[in-house]
Amino acid sequence: MAKYQRYMDASNRAMDFFVRNIAEDGEFKGKGTVGDLGAIYKAPTLLLLAGRVDVATRLLEYIQRRFGQNNGDFLSYPDKTGREKRTENGLLKEFQAYMGGRITAAAHRIGRFDISIPSYDFLQTFWSPKVKTFIVNEPYNESSQEQIVDTLISSHLGLLALFFKDMDKAIGAGDAIVKIYELQNDP
To answer: CA–CA separation, 71 vs 90, rounded Å?
Structure first.
């Protein structure tokens, strides 16, 4: 254990810094984070893994108050249009279900079903009955020609489906991952 102790110490110092920078109302006070969910969406899980359920709960409550929408989605800029609503992070704009999936999983693990259930209901709009997995870039729309499927969202939301005992979607997502890999060329 001594061999890795310096890494554990560094990890603990980083967590202490992170916790010190979360206000009583749950807002993270770090530079560049104000107003953009893309800066903090993974933090509740990080806090859970560090055993800080109290702080994770506080942060989730802040996320719900600040970014939560009536339909279960989470948006940084609800007054903007299109993908610009979600975040300023260019990559996360394209993976529209990803941040919500992370937040939903953390809320469900803590037992904050008032957050996780409406969010999971919203994430169901990304399910494609046609390809039997989740869409990456927009809610399913039968007439859209721009819907993308990938292994990241399929695995991420497929695991979330397991949390909710939604076995048809979990199996569908798993089957989609297998199919995607089978379509790959051998090296």
So the answer is: 23
The answer to whether the pTM exceeds 0.85 is yes
Q: How many CB atoms lie within 10 A of CB 100?
A: 26
Q: Is residue 1 part of a domain?
A: no
Residue 187 lies in a domain: no
107 in a domain, yes or no?
yes
Has residue 162 been placed in a domain?
yes
CA distance 62 to 26: 5
Q: Give alpha helix (H) positions in the chain.
A: 5-20, 43-49, 53-67, 90-94, 98-110, 113-123, 151-163, 167-182
Joined tokens for residue 82: 């299109």
* Model confidence pLDDT, tens digit, residues 32-62: 666 899 989 999 999 999 999 999 999 999 9
Please say whether the beta carbons of 103 and 109 come within 8 A: no
Domain count, the chain: 1
The Cα–Cα gap between 153 and 136 comes to 6
Give me the sign of the Cα torsion angle 26, 29, 31, 34: positive
For residue 186, what pLDDT is reported? 74
Domain containing residue 50: 6-182
